[in-house]
Design brief:
The protein is an alpha/beta fold. The protein folds into two domains: 12-314, Rossmann fold (3-Layer(aba) Sandwich), CATH 3.40.50.970; 350-458, Rossmann fold (3-Layer(aba) Sandwich). It is 44% helix and 10% strand. It is built from 17 helices and ten strands. It has a five-stranded parallel beta sheet with strand order 1-2-3-7-6, sandwiched between helices. Strands 9-8-10 form a three-stranded parallel beta sheet, covered by helices on one side. Helix 2 packs across helix 9 (234-246). 48% of the residues are buried.
Length: 461
């Protein structure tokens, strides 16, 4: 866990004021829009506070910094949690006025986070539950392979981890099960997921449809699992995140929270999930917090405390020293890093490698010929199939398989997990440094359709 420059103990009342600011910004934005999901941000505010102020390697002044950690709000309906954290951290957008425009047409604060220009700090579009979970697995996979390929001396130019907040709903979706299973098999230890275990969905208590032992399931997948009994216990959260980051396996931390925390009449109920609290209940919740401020108020001491720009600049400067050392030690690999990761460019001569396709042949045969013609000159070409490599012709000849003990393999074995395959490919693309491809039979692409739609919305290739 990165430490802040000039790290000094923070008074308990400042911690509490910062967390309450996140909660009340979410409450006020949803109430002003008369639409949205206030309960999740109210329950998860301590997690967001710790992540953005103490844990994440991020620099609001350079949101696309390649050495940053990735944060995915897989529970995208709780978008105001992310928007509040980004604003308070010092990102250019969203501004306070953007928060006031939550869920309004044309705003940069839509009801669910959207990746793209004007949305700094949003790493992926989420909303359809489970997609962010699988995107994060793809990001971690990309980081592992890119580090093995471009930083063999482990100088540390790609130190990033992937953090996410996932919900009960995310963990009910099949795509998350597919992705979690593969992440455990591949030992993707850069993943630290915090599970918002509030036990409430729109229809009521989760026990009407969801009674499994989630941590036992993830244990069986090969994940490192922990439980935090009280989502407001900052020390317990810190200890759990530190233990997760130190473990070589992917990690899931089940954090027991109260949806709508602080709302006298709606906390812990489905009424706090997907509708404004109402004026009377907003006032009651703020009284419970001891918050005597107008809507959208950010106390000066909280703004000072949560501004992450100085800390981010220090982390980025330290990373730039590593990049300089890498350029000296590995100049050719450093040039590849600059091209693929920093500039995001294809090799200048890649079109010359395209084969001439003549004669009648199945499209999958032509596709395989193109993949293998381009592979030697486009090293970022990286992908595979859902247990159909021999039929889809997706293998790079002599490329080897990517697996837990070989991070340099060029062929991905997704197993029979079409949905996770496509969603993970989105995560690989979003991470940067790769041109991912995946394949299946056309009839099976119905399983991929949600991820294909999101790839189109995000403009990913």
């Amino acid at each position: 866990m990165p430490s802040a420059p000039n790290d000094q103990p923070v008074p308990a009342d400042l911690h509490e004021a910062a967390i309450t600011t996140i909660r009340t910004l979410a409450i006020d934005a949803v109430q002003t829009a008369n639409s949205g999901h206030p309960g999740m941000p109210m329950g998860c505010a301590p997690m967001a506070y710790l992540l953005f102020s103490e844990v994440l390697r991020h620099d609001p002044a350079d949101p696309a910094w390649p050495g940053r950690d990735r944060f995915v709000l897989s529970a995208g309906h709780g978008s105001m949690l992310l928007y509040a954290a980004l604003h308070l951290s010092g990102y250019e957008r969203p501004t306070l006025e953007d928060l006031r425009s939550f869920r309004q047409l044309g705003s940069v604060t839509p009801g669910h986070p959207e990746f793209g220009p004007g949305h700094p700090g949003v790493e992926t579009t989420t909303g359809p539950l489970g997609q962010g979970f699988a995107n994060g697995v793809g990001m971690a996979l990309a980081a592992e392979r890119l580090s093995a390929e471009l930083d063999p001396d482990d100088i540390g130019i790609l130190p990033q981890r992937v953090y996410a907040i996932v919900s009960d709903g995310d963990l009910m979706e099949g795509v998350s099960a597919e992705a979690a299973s593969l992440a455990g098999h591949l030992r993707l230890g850069r993943l630290t997921y915090l599970y918002d275990d509030n036990r409430i969905t729109i229809d009521g208590s989760t026990d009407i449809a969801f009674s499994e032992d989630v941590l036992a399931r993830f244990d069986a997948y090969g994940w490192h699992t922990q439980q935090v009994a009280d989502g407001n216990d900052l020390d317990a959260l810190r200890a759990a995140i530190a233990a997760a980051d130190a473990d070589p396996r992917p990690s899931l931390i089940a954090v027991r929270t109260v949806i709508g925390y602080g709302s006298p009449a709606k906390a812990g109920t489905a009424a706090a999930h997907g509708a404004p609290l109402g004026d009377d209940e907003v006032a009651a919740a703020k009284r419970a917090y001891g918050w005597e401020h107008p809507p959208f108020h950010v106390p000066a001491e909280v703004a000072d405390h949560l501004d992450a720009r100085e800390r981010g600049a220090a982390l980025r400067a330290e990373w730039q020293e590593r990049v300089r050392a890498h350029r000296v030690a590995q100049p050719e690999l450093a040039a590849e890093f600059d091209r693929r990761v920093v500039r995001g460019e294809l090799p200048g001569d890649w079109t010359e490698a395209l084969p001439s396709l003549e004669g009648d042949a199945a499209t999958r045969q032509h596709s395989g010929a193109v993949i293998n013609a381009l592979a030697p000159v486009v090293p970022e070409l990286f992908g595979g199939s859902a247990d159909l490599a021999a039929s889809n012709n997706t293998d790079v000849a002599d490329g080897g398989d990517f697996h837990a003990d070989d991070r340099l393999g060029r062929n991905l074995r997704f197993g029979i997990r079409e949905h996770a395959m496509a969603s993970m490919a989105n995560g690989i693309a979003l991470h940067g440094g790769f041109l991912p491809y995946v394949a299946s039979f056309l009839v099976f692409t119905d399983y991929c359709r949600p991820a294909i739609r999101l790839a189109a919305l995000m403009g990913q290739r």
